[in-house]
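Input.
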Amino acid sequence: ENKGDNTSNEEDEDKNEGEGEGNGQEEEDDDNNQNDGNGQDDGDNQDNDNDDNNDGIETFYVNEIPSEFDIFGPFFVWKSEEISSTEALVTVIAKMQWSEVLAGDALATLEGFSVDDITGWRMFTEEEAREFFVDFDGGESEINNILYENGFNIFYSQDIKDNEKAARYLCNDAQSTFNLYGSLRIIKAGQKTEYYLRPVKTMRFKVK
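Output.
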């Protein structure tokens, strides 16, 4: 598999319908909306003290710091950056996702989303999209195996209704989209095309 980074600054996909995948244009995604998880599972004894340390990152007290690729309550722990033996910055991915979201609706969709009363969710940044593409590692993804075994929504590499199309996820505050199979292509989001959207959040975990 070629996992090169072929970032594109193409024009809005909706202005170039019918030009095909090879030109970086996306057809409209007509998947059924997926919201398979309600995001309200019990957590692993998380207490939020709202101590943001002036960096905008919420602090949660936990019994132990989870490792990367762990399931931690209703979260998949994607990244964990150790600060000390009792503290880490952790980026988690929510249990559920949406599959029919317009770019113009994405920020409002995330604003209204909460898990165990935890708000402040976002989408992948462009840099995170590049990192996650590498970690996801194509169709036989370890990440998807972990998600599936624990009842989480998996990530799609192909469109679930049209296997000839790549599934595309919103990133970069809904300005861009990225794929998870073949060569990485980060392109401008169209305004009429519906995309996948997965909630992501960075938290500070401290051991109680």
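Residues 1-43 have pLDDT under 50 and may be disordered.
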